[in-house]
Amino acid sequence: MKSWSIPTAAAVVAATIFFSLSTMALPAASAIVEHTFVVSQMTMKHLCKETPVTVVNGQIPGPTIEVTEGDSVTVHVVNKSPHNITIHWHGVKQRRNCWSDGVPMVTQCPILPNQNFTYRFSVAGQVGTLWWHAHVSCLRATLHGAIIIRPRLGASSTTTSCDIYVMRSELNCCWDWWAMDLAVVARRMEKDNFFDYFPSASTINGKLGDLFNCSGVPEDGFVLDVEAGKTYLLRIINTALFSEPYTTDLVVIAPGETIDALVVADAPPGKYYMVAMPNQAPLPDTQTPEPSTRATMQYSPAGNGGKPVAPVMPDQHDVVQSLYFHSNLSSLRDPRHPLPPVPKQVDQHLFITLGLGMACRRGLSCSSDDENDNMILVATMNNISFLKPTAALLPAHYYHVGSNKGDLLELPDKPPRVFNFTDPSLIPIGPKEKALEQTYMATLARWFRYGSAVEMGDSNPMHLHGHDMFVLAQGHGNFDAARDRARYNLVDPPLKNTVVVPNLGWVAIRFVADNPGVWYMHCHYEFHLAMGMTAVFIVEDGPTVNTKDSLLVPDESYLQTREIKASRIDGV
């Protein structure tokens, strides 16, 4: 998780930044926006070291997809890299179109080296900042880019008016720079259960900034030029969609989140640092070396040529900042852009605990007392760690072949035992913690009738594909239904595709399972995803076949991949 700050009077960000100025009128009719993504491997030099990186079209960040609400998008992916690849369109609803969601061995087989695949999807009913990224272990650190969905011409805007001139800057926040081959990192995590690799630096718009150097020469940093009196819309990629604005000088943003922030350039002309600082839980949690980074906002024409002014940042272990920031978010109360109503009645209640445990390697048998290499560290949902399927689940679900309910384990309504889930003494691995874990591995799934209203509680930055979630409440400690449901915001809760709460806390969400398909639900921390903090949510077709209630028929590009449906994602 990152905390961002700059010393100006309005809300601020920090991130890898795509900068653009848009003054064009938007087209009145919907269009087909087409891109070709050529995935390849190249060498980049930072911190005096050349490192192999996997990129799209030779650039980091990758191409920005700019569309208007209601457009259709076609992306041809040409895989010239040595790795298996899929691309996920993070936050895109993919209404009835799970085929283009881009999750390997869930919605599709991976795109193998020297193969192509075409993604097609619509952005109807969506406006705002989303992003795309590779959905294979670790490679999203370099394979990512922005999706900008602008309102259709004639639709009212919440960011512009006759007396406010809004410049637009697209930001991609806080990506790590790894001075090592990320494919090696991924293989060590997934094959060797090794998680002691750490990033060498952080970036803002692909630039490391002057906190890092090569033989004493500072790395280049991103510079955002602003003009006094103007307002800038910063699209930060790394929170809530359609959120009610409020003033802040600090943005807290977790992996997988996006947020839009208006920054008013009303400080004394000069130079100011934008700082991105990692936020991590205090001891006894594991402490990882996560570097800060910074960019520069400078007024044009420049006021002074001195060193930029740095903001005062919170303590790295101040997890209350995250709770405060996210608790202040709410939905935009605008009758011109009504949001779907919060479901008042709930059909399924799930209580999900997220944690770590030890489990036996796939295909082996061992006991919980084993201390050898047969036991591996895993991440769990209700004490079960996700086991990758050997064939893609979506075609099996659609064609009623291969994997079925007999091959999948249903995600339980609740954990097997009730205890103090947020007890700090259980964080270190040891006998006390081991007696409570009861961990094993399975391909974890949960089935929902079409239109079901689901209430769920969990922690960590959890991303649900194909749906948005109403964030009803959040807090520290254990969730207590009798106490905490009275705090639910059922009027204007934020609507998000990625939900995060502070460490040793909880969040309560509701969503309507109204998008048929097989959808991924997972933690967006890379190591937790690799360790199995994942499940698939299977939404059945509605009551009327071949209508808006049912999954679309896959197109020809997808059908061609069925010839390799038995391929396994044995690496990246």
UniProtKB/TrEMBL annotation:
It is found in: Secreted. Keywords: Copper, Metal-binding, Oxidoreductase, Repeat, Secreted, Signal. Residues 1-25 form the signal peptide. The lineage of its organism: Eukaryota, Viridiplantae, Streptophyta, Embryophyta, Tracheophyta. Its main location: secreted. It comes from the Eukaryota. Belongs to the multicopper oxidase family. Pfam families: Cu-oxidase, Cu-oxidase_2, Cu-oxidase_3. GO terms for molecular function: copper ion binding; oxidoreductase activity. This is Laccase.
